Amino acid sequence: xxxxxxxxxxxxxxxxxxxxxxxxxxxxxxxxxxxxxxxxxxxxxxxxxxxxxxxxxxxxxxxxxxxxxxxxxxxxxxxxxxxxxxxxxxxxxxxxxxxxxxxxxxxxxxxxxxxxxxxxxxxxxxxxxxxxxxxxxxxxxxxxxxxxxxxxxxxxxxxxxxxxxxxxxxxxxxxxxxxxxxxxxxxxxxxxxxxxxxxxxxxxxxxxxxxxxxxxxxxxxxxxxxxxxxxxxxxxxxxxxxxxxxxxxxxxxxxxxxxxxxxxxxxxxxxxxxxxxxxxxxxxxxxxxxxxxxxxxxxxxxxxxxxxxxxxxxxxxxxxxxxxxxxxxxxxxxxxxxxxxxxxxxxxx
Amino acid sequence: xxxxxxxxxxxxxxxxxxxxxxxxxxxxxxxxxxxxxxxxxxxxxxxxxxxxxxxxxxxxxxxxxxxxxxxxxxxxxxxxxxxxxxxxxxxxxxxxxxxxxxxxxxxxxxxxxxxxxxxxxxxxxxxxxxxxxxx
Lengths: 349, 135
What we know:
The complex is a heterodimer. Chain A has one domain: Roll (T-fold). Chain A has 8 helices and 18 strands. Chain A has helices at 46-64, 72-79, 88-103, 113-119, 169-185, 279-292, 296-303, 345-348; strands at residues 15-16, 25-31, 34-41, 82-85, 131-132, 149-151, 154-157, 190-195, 198-203, 210-214, 227-231, 235-240, 245-248, 251-254, 269-276, 307-311, 316-319, 332-333. The longest helix of chain A is centred in the N-terminal third of the chain and has 19 residues, at 46-64. Chain A is globular and about 50 Å long. By secondary structure, chain B is of the alpha+beta class. Chain B has a two-stranded antiparallel ribbon. Classes of the chains: A alpha+beta, B alpha+beta. At the A-B interface, strand 2, strand 3, helix 5, strand 8 and strand 9 of A face strand 1, strand 2, strand 3 and strand 4 of B.
């Protein structure tokens, strides 16, 4: 049995973001290969909130980053299989990823690490040569999440299995950050945390809910035009194949991989936004919807998840009570699938 | 035998319950009175303490309903049952009219460089424009 790697911290400066409302404070900084945003009321809590989020992000990055050589996850790669004693944080993140795989029928699978590397997504996205001439490697189907065993903090990882927690880790981070902020600021007020567009809220929301824009990219102006929804509870997350794309041998690739083929998904939906009780649920469901392709509508409907799907042609499909027009609240299911189901897969099969 | 002792009805007064002299009776009445006052005082203290505790608890935890489905549920159990948020809940938050965040794909990218300085790992991050206009 191996023990965990040492820890370290990192932080980028927070920048205040003016929104036009003085009753809330918003700040943003780079984190986890994307951006982190915090919104709080009362606005005087922003400093404490950002500090609390810093701690969460530093820990999550140290635990679950695939691109840091000194992360706990990278340390697992280097060991090439075995039994590992994980930190509590990584154990939870892996448990959520396995539960999400079980919940989505394997549409999101944390064992796609090798598939992503074969496609060329082998480092922080900004460091990828996005126009490399030679083709990508041979597609590597995911070995399968059910080959991984997690019993409390003990992880049994077969040789050659590389974990990638990209479909759930940002959601886990947003959930943790909201808890941390509420713990640091007390029960008064409310908080919204976004990690790369995966958003969780806590405390008391503003009147009528937190106003949240739904768009393919942070600076996107459509089509389809961005929609504004109100979030009064839970979380919302978005996955899209139009971001994080690169080219290998003239072929455009993206980061959402079908675990069954090891290739980027090629379904009818280019973007999926899903509301759920927790951000990890929403994060997993949004990615699963992209992977599910034609089955996305039936799966999301069966799970009772409000969702907004955008087809390749730009047509918008609203499901499960997702408001068809701007300005309305999103109904959010209660109860989590991925946290409640974050138990060792061996015990459930 | 009782009759022999001159106490009819079979009752035999205990020695302490006999008629005491006036001094003893006055002392006992004083003690009884003091006990009665103490009981009322204790009861008042209990009621007062409880009322104060309830008032403090109400101030510490306002009656406004907590945000349904917050991350606090993350560790909770159960699967989907009902929905929340279909209508604005009882919130005491301020009105916010402008969007505070965007749910989107992770389009903003950051270059992360890890170096070792004096035995400590330093992570430098450089922000880049989104990379989604490549076709």
